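Q: Got a minute? One more chain.
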Amino acid sequence: QVQLVESGGGLVQPGGSLRLSCAASGFTLEDYVVGWFRQAPGKEREGVSCVSDNGFSTAYVDSVKGRFTISRDNAKNTVYLQMNSLKPEDTAVYYCKILIFWGQGTQVTVSS
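A: Always. Here it is, folded:
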């Protein structure tokens, strides 16, 4: 059974950092592009970042460039999203996605 589990969310002050993890089970993650998405209250889900199967290519939405870093550890079947210099507008539920499969999401709240 394919399963994606996100973790690492929480409440952080503006300017703070969090590292999200997306752990896959039921299949080998290394063959696939992985994406991070987020959905803020009242807004549509948006793509945040993605990483190629070998980890050499990455992409980011403009609003997070220079602050977020996506990476993967295929040996651990896990993809990460390091989020620095967090802003209140980064508040959202963050999801990882592989092919048609989504995780359950992890809440990130940036507030003082």
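A: The chain has a mean pLDDT of 96.
Q: Perfect, thanks.
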